[in-house]
Amino acid sequence: MLCLIFTPAALCWWAKKNNSNSNSNLYCRWYDVSCLLLKDPRHGVELTAFSQATPVPPECICAAQDATPSDYPLRWSGLAMTVGQAIEQRVPHVDHTNWHQYIVGMSRGEILLSAARALAGQYRARLVPYDSIL
């Protein structure tokens, strides 16, 4: 049995605003990243590929945080509003399901297809060693 698992994730990357050692000079940048996992127990293969990181505008993160109640049961792992919904509120002509196209010029499907192709290449290389195709 071959199993492909797709998990969307948001990454927060912390950086210093300047060379100061103060924590008040830290800022956070958010990225939307998808992880594709392929498990093939029959061949003992388990592979992972990640999509390109799509930057999320900070004002959209703030809007999603503001829309999330403090008692939201999943606040430890997410927010009550999606990035797409936050962008759609700020830019009404952008559909919440296609916000990647607006931000980076590629649809979510194109981004995932690129990661899936990389995963398929890894899988092929694992099943058919390079030496055997020469």
Question: What report would you give on this structure?
Answer:
The protein is of the alpha+beta class. It has one domain. It has 4 helices and 4 strands; from the N terminus they run ββββαααα. Strands 1, 2, 3 and 4 form a 4-stranded antiparallel sheet that branches. A hairpin with a 4-residue loop joins β2 and β3. The protein is elongated, with a radius of gyration of 19 Å. It starts with a strand and ends in a 7-residue tail after the last helix.
Set down the secondary structure blueprint.
Elements: E1 3-16, E2 26-40, E3 45-50, E4 54-56, H1 58-66, H2 83-90, H3 99-104, H4 108-127
Antiparallel strand pairs: 1-2, 2-3, 2-4
Helix pairs in contact: 1-2
Features:
134 residues; alpha+beta; four-stranded antiparallel beta sheet; 4 helices; 4 strands; 32% helix; 28% strand; elongated
